[in-house]
Amino acid sequence: MNRTSEYSFTIIVPIYNEEDNIRTLEDRLSAYLPFCTYKACVLFVNDGSSDSSGEMLAETCSRHKDFYYISFAKNAGLSAALKAGIDYTESEYAGYMDADLQTAPEDFNLLLAEIRNYSMVIGIRADRKDSFFKNLQSRIANGFRRMMTSDGAIDTGCPLKVLHTDVAKRIPLFKGMHRFLPALVLLQDGATYRQIPVRHFPRTAGVSKYHLWNRLWGPFADCFAYRWMKPRYINYSVASSNLCNVEPTEKAAIEK
C-alpha cells in the first residue's frame, strides 16, 4: 500500500545537491506538519544527487513517521522529479515546494484554505528577495510565457503550489513543463486556479541550479512546445465500464 494514501495532503520536495539545506528542511517541515490544515506528509524526491543528499534524506526519513523519500538512479531534472512525486502520491491533495526554503512551508495553509474551490492554488512571491538581474530575467520570461499561453499566471516560478491530486496526475509533464503548471491545468475541462501572495526569502544555503540559459532560453523554447501540444491535448470522460473495481472517471491524454 502507498503510505501517502493515509494522508489528505502530500508535500513533494524535489532534491538535487541540497546537502546544506537538508537539516533545515527537516526542522521546518517537521515543525509545520502538526499545524497543517490537513493531515499531511512529506515526500522527498532525490533527483540523483551527487553529494550526500540521498544518504541524509534516508536518515532524516528514518526519524520521522510522516517523512518519505524516493531516489532516482541518476539525475533527470526538476520536471521529472515533480512528475515522480505526483505519480507516487495517493493523498487527496498534492503540494510542491523547493528545497531552498525561499518560500515558507507554513504558507501552504494560505493555499489550502482555497483548494476546495479550485483545481489548483499557487503562490505569488511577494517582495521578492532575489537580485535585480534575476528578477528582471523572471519578469521577461513570465511575460513571454503569458503572451504565448494566455494563462494569466503572474509568477509560475513560485514553487509553492497545491493541486487536487487527480488533476495533477492528468497533467502532461515533460522536461521544462514545471514552468507551465497553470497553463497545463487549464487544458483540463472545467479546471480553475487561484493565485495568492506568499512570503519570499533569500537563499541562505546551497547553490541555485538556475542561470541565464535555463531561466530565459529554456522557458522561451518550452513555450513553443506548449503551443504545439495545446491543440493536441485530449479530454475524455468515461460514463460506464464493466471492469472490476473501476469507477467512472475523467482522464486526459496527449494525441499521438
Task: For this entry, give a set of tags.
8 helices; 7-stranded mixed sheet; 256 residues; 19% strand; 32% helix
Sheet with the most strands: spatial strand order? 3-2-1-4-6-5-7
CATH topology: Spore Coat Polysaccharide Biosynthesis Protein SpsA, Chain A
State the shape: globular
Average pLDDT number: 84
CATH superfamily, by name, is: Spore Coat Polysaccharide Biosynthesis Protein SpsA, Chain A
- Supply Rg: 18 Å
CATH level 1 name: Alpha Beta
Estimated helix fraction:
25-40%
Structural class category: alpha/beta
Total number of strands: 9
Q: Any overview of this molecule?
A:
There is one protein chain. This protein has helices at residues 22-32, 53-63, 78-87, 108-112, 132-149, 165-169, 181-185, 212-229, and strands at 9-15, 40-46, 67-71, 93-96, 120-125, 161-164, 193-198, 233-237, 250-254. The chain is of the alpha/beta class and 256 residues long. It has a single domain (3-130, 154-209), classed as Spore Coat Polysaccharide Biosynthesis Protein SpsA, Chain A, CATH 3.90.550.10. The protein has a seven-stranded mixed sheet, with helices on both faces. The protein is globular and about 45 Å long. The relative contact order is 0.15.
Quick gist of this model?
The chain is an alpha/beta fold. Helix content is 32%, strand content 19%.
Which secondary structure elements does this structure contain, and how are they paired or packed?
Layout: E1 9-15, H1 22-32, E2 40-46, H2 53-63, E3 67-71, H3 78-87, E4 93-96, H4 108-112, E5 120-125, H5 132-149, E6 161-164, H6 165-169, H7 181-185, E7 193-198, H8 212-229, E8 233-237, E9 250-254
Parallel strand pairs: 1-2, 1-4, 2-3, 5-7
Antiparallel strand pairs: 4-6, 5-6, 8-9
